[in-house]
Amino acid sequence: MTNTLTVTDLTLTFPDGNERVTALDKVNLRVGGGEIAAITGPSGSGKSTLLAAVSTLVRPDSGRIELDTDGGPVDLAALSRRAATAMRRNTIGIVFQQSNLIPALTALEQLEAMAHLGQSLLVSPARRRATRAHARELLDAVGLSGHENKRPAQLSGGQRQRVNIARALMNEPALLVIDEPTSALDQERGAAIIELIVRIVREHNAATLLVTHDRAHLHRMDTVHRMVDGVLTLGSTATIAA
Known about the structure:
The protein is of the alpha/beta class. The chain has two domains: 1-91 and 175-242, 3-Layer(aba) Sandwich (Rossmann fold); 101-172, no CATH class. It has seven helices and ten strands.
């Protein structure tokens, strides 16, 4: 199965005075393409650290983070800084808790900027047209047709999060990493965002890690895990939601 994420014995520690604190304690996890693994647990338990490690933003002390795509398996934990940057640009889509949109850019331009990261400034007109067409398709897919030329200040919180999701999909990622996508939304808008994420993940066949505190949506996930003090355990939706 392509686009499969396999995390094996992942360990990460941070210095704390003369000692070290274990943020991730031999974490094991597997997510197939088109599947969503939810990560729950109390604040400070290591959930965001796991996302940061999987998305190559921090390097673990030990363990493997293997992403198997059409190009073959890659150990994300062993990449150089330059290779990790290229991987985030081309293969990993990251949806942060806050949308982090650029205030001066329209919704359409947010996606176009993502597509042109790391490219030469001399992009051909044909390539620019293709990029713009793809950006429009994604904005339409997330329900923002007609909002392409609006800037972040002109969009609601739910709409900004939709732009955030579309932007993460701009380079057809094999892996999606999503941090608290509904935390700033009301229940109705949060449910709509989860519905959107589920549909997008299935359509794009992306292996997806989703951190959430919202138990109302756990039944939509393929697997639900709980993290406490850096230890990740797999449980049923009913058990974790209780």
